[in-house]
Amino acid sequence: MKKKKVYVLLTDTGTMFTRMIKLCTRKPFNHASIGFDTELAEVYSFGRKTPRNPFIGGFVKENVKSGLFIGAGCAIYSCTLSECQYKKMYQKVKKLEEQKLQLKYNFLGLIAVLLKLKFHRKNAFFCSQFVATILHESGLPLVHKPLCLVTPHDLTTISIFELVYRGKLSSYLLMLEHQSCNKEYAKVN
Question: What is the mean pLDDT of residues 152-158?
């Protein structure tokens, strides 16, 4: 059976909003996304819909090559799935993307996490809650806590994930580009 990888991308963009979250969590990364390819061309999360306003948020397909991600620090984790698990996870994300106008950013849930209070809102997520929900609904084992309390750091403790890269996101993308160029060069020669 064919195997596929899924990626969890944790980032620190250094914005005022993320610095405030970092003060509370005392963890290096404060935003979580889920990706479906090594190049991070398909990355999804709950976050800012407009780069300049952190209070307008919801479901987003993120472009890690621009905006707030330029200069961001990151940690990238991966796990190997069966093709069936991968498809199931991808379809769940795509279904949410189709419903994105009905989905909201869960600011109240984010505050509840800081206060360690369980708080669930229908059709509303914050970034790590979204990633944890996608993983959970796809049958992957998670941390032992309610999905509405999962932080980006909690995602690093899931045993099936392994660290792929840690550093500047732009450096990771350059490394991939360099590897791709080397492969193309090798094919030509």
Answer: 93
